[in-house]
C-alpha cells in the first residue's frame, strides 16, 4: 500500500524512539539519587555513611511533636516507620502543620538528628472547601 | 494519497472560523473566571491560593497536549512527506509554549505562599522547564533554517527528543519523591478534588483550549496566505 521509502522512514522513527526511551531510562535509573527531591526517614536510617553534604528529608510532621522555643522550632518528621528529629531557626511556611507533609533542607547530625536550614511545606493532592473538610472530620 | 491538499478550500473555512471561536472563547472565559475567582469555594488548607490552580493546571495540560500533537503531526509529516502536517505543527507551537511558561510562572506564584519557595529543582518542575526549552528550540529552528527539507527534519527530530520528556513529566510525581503533589484528577479512580472545584477547572481548560485553537487558526491562515502568494494552489 505504501511505498518502500515510507516504510523505511517509519522504521527509522521507531528505532530512534526506542533508542531514546532506553537511553532516558538508563540515565534516569543511574541518576535516581539526584532525581529524588528528598529522602524519607527510613532511607536516612539505612544510609551507608553520613556525609557532610546538604540533604533534604521529607515526610509527615508527627502529631504533637512541634515545640516552639523563642525563634527555634523542634519537630519530628515521620514516615510512619521511622522518625527523625529536626531543629530549625527561621521563618516557617504558612502551611506547616502537624500531620501534614514537610520537606526540611539541611544537615544530618546523626541518624536521628537533623539540623534544618530551610523548611518547605508539602501540599497533598486533596482539594476541598472548608465545609466539606469539617463534615469529613465529624464522621 | 496525501498530495491532494487545496489551501484555497481550507482557507475558506479557517479564515471565517476565528471570529466565532473568539466569541465562544470570550463567553467560556468569562464563565470560567467567574466560577474560578468568585463562585468557587476557597480551599480548607490553602484558602484563596487555590484559585491559582484554575490557571496553572489547564495551562500545563494544554502545553503537554499541544506538544504531543506537534510530535504526532511531525512524525506523520516526516513519514508520509506531508507539508500540511508541518504547517499545522508550526502554527500550534506558539500557544503551547506560552501556556508552558504560564504554568511555570503560576506554579512559582503558588509555590511561594504554600511551599515557602518560588522554585525547587524537583522532578516535576525541572521536567516542565525542559519542555519549555524544547518548545523554544522547536520555534527557533523554524526561524533559522530556510530550506523546507531541512526545517522539516530538524523540527521532527526535536519533537521526538522532546516527547520522551512528556511521560516523565506525567509520572515524575509517582516515580520519585517530589515537592510537587501527585495528580488530583484520575480518570480511572476517584479524584481527590471536590466537584465544586473540578467544575471551574474544566471550564477554564475549555477556555484555554479555545484560545489555543484561535491562535492556531490565525497562525495557520498566515501560512496558507504565504503559500497562496507563492502562486501554488496545492502542496
Can you offer a commentary on this structure?
- The complex is a heterodimer of chains A (about 140) and B (about 240).
- Chain A has a 5-stranded mixed barrel with strand order 1-3-4-6-5.
- Chain A is an alpha+beta fold.
- Chain A has helices spanning about 5-30, 30-35, 40-45, 130-139; strands at about 55-60, 65-70, 70-80, 85-90, 100-110, 115-120.
- Chain A has 2 domains: about 5-35; about 35-120, OB fold (Dihydrolipoamide Acetyltransferase, E2P), CATH 2.40.50.
- Chain B is an all-alpha fold.
- In chain B, α5 (about 125-145) packs antiparallel against α7.
- The mean pLDDT of chain B is about 90.
- Chains A and B meet through α1, β6 and α4 of A and α3 and α6 of B.
Task: Furnish the topology, listing elements before pairings.
The complex is a heterodimer of chains A (139) and B (235).
Chain A: H1 4-30, H2 32-35, H3 41-45, E1 55-61, E2 67-69, E3 72-78, E4 83-89, E5 101-108, E6 113-122, H4 130-138
Chain B: H1 7-14, H2 17-39, H3 53-80, H4 83-114, H5 123-144, H6 148-163, H7 165-175, H8 195-229
Helix pairs in contact in B: 1-8, 2-8, 3-4, 3-6, 3-8, 4-5, 4-8, 5-6, 5-7
Features:
heterodimer, A: 139 residues, alpha+beta, OB fold (Dihydrolipoamide Acetyltransferase, E2P), 2 domains, five-stranded mixed beta barrel, 4 helices, 6 strands, B: 235 residues, mainly alpha, Four Helix Bundle (Hemerythrin (Met), subunit A), 8 helices, globular
Helix content of chain B: over 70%
Tally of helical segments of chain A: 4
Measured between the Cα atoms of the first and last residue of chain B, the distance is 12 Å
State mean pLDDT of chain A (0 to 100 scale). 87
Which structural class best describes the helix and strand composition of chain B? mainly alpha
Rough outline of chain B? globular
The structural domain count of chain B equals 1
- The helix content of chain A is 25-40%
| Gross CATH architecture of the largest domain in chain A | Beta Barrel
Distance from N terminus to C terminus of chain A (CA atoms, Å) equals 64 Å
Mind telling me which CATH architecture of chain B this is? Up-down Bundle
Q: Give the biggest sheet of chain B.
A: none
Major sheet summary line of chain A: 5 strands, mixed, barrel
* Gyration radius from CA atoms of chain B, angstroms: 20 Å
Which term fits the overall shape of chain A? elongated
Number of strands of chain B: 0
Regions with little confidence, pLDDT below 50 for 5+ residues of chain B: none
Amino acid at each position: 500500500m505504501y511505498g518502500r521509502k515510507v516504510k523505511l522512514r517509519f522504521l527509522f522513527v521507531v528505532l530512534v524512539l526506542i533508542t531514546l526511551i532506553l537511553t532516558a531510562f538508563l540515565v534516569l535509573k543511574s541518576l535516581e539519587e539526584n532525581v529524588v527531591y528528598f529522602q524519607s526517614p527510613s532511607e536516612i536510617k539505612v544510609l551507608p555513611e553520613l556525609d557532610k553534604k546538604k540533604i533534604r528529608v521529607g515526610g509527615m510532621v508527627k502529631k504533637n511533636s512541634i515545640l516552639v522555643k523563642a525563634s527555634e522550632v523542634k519537630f519530628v518528621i515521620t514516615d510512619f516507620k521511622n522518625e527523625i528529629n529536626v531543629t530549625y531557626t527561621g521563618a516557617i511556611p504558612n502551611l506547616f502543620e502537624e500531620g501534614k507533609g514537610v520537606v526540611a533542607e539541611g544537615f544530618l547530625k546523626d541518624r536521628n538528628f537533623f539540623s534544618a536550614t530551610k523548611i518547605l511545606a508539602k501540599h497533598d493532592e486533596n482539594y476541598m472547601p472548608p465545609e466539606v473538610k469539617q463534615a469529613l472530620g465529624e464522621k | 494519497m496525501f498530495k491532494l491538499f487545496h489551501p484555497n478550500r481550507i482557507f475558506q473555512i479557517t479564515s471565517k472560523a476565528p471570529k466565532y471561536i473568539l466569541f465562544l472563547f470570550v463567553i467560556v472565559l468569562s464563565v470560567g473566571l467567574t466560577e474560578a475567582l468568585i463562585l468557587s469555594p476557597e480551599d480548607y488548607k490553602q484558602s484563596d491560593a487555590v484559585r491559582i490552580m484554575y490557571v496553572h493546571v489547564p495551562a500545563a495540560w494544554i502545553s503537554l497536549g499541544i506538544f504531543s500533537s506537534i510530535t504526532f503531526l511531525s512524525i506523520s509529516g516526516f513519514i508520509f512527506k506531508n507539508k500540511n502536517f508541518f504547517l499545522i505543527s508550526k502554527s500550534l507551537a506558539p500557544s503551547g509554549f506560552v501556556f508552558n511558561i504560564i504554568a511555570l510562572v503560576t506554579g512559582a506564584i503558588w509555590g511561594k505562599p504554600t511551599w515557602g519557595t518560588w522554585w525547587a529543582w524537583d522532578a516535576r518542575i525541572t521536567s516542565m522547564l525542559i519542555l519549555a526549552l524544547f518548545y523554544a528550540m522547536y520555534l527557533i529552528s523554524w526561524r533559522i533554517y530556510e530550506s523546507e527539507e531541512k526545517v522539516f527534519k530538524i523540527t521532527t527530530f526535536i519533537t521526538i527528543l522532546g516527547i520522551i520528556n512528556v511521560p516523565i513529566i506525567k509520572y515524575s510525581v509517582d516515580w520519585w519523591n517530589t515537592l510537587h503533589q501527585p495528580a488530583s484528577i484520575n480518570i480511572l479512580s476517584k479524584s481527590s478534588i471536590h466537584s465544586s472545584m473540578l467544575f471551574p477547572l474544566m471550564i477554564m481548560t475549555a477556555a484555554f483550549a479555545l484560545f489555543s485553537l484561535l491562535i492556531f487558526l490565525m497562525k495557520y491562515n498566515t501560512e496558507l496566505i504565504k503559500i497562496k502568494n507563492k502562486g501554488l494552489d496545492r502542496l
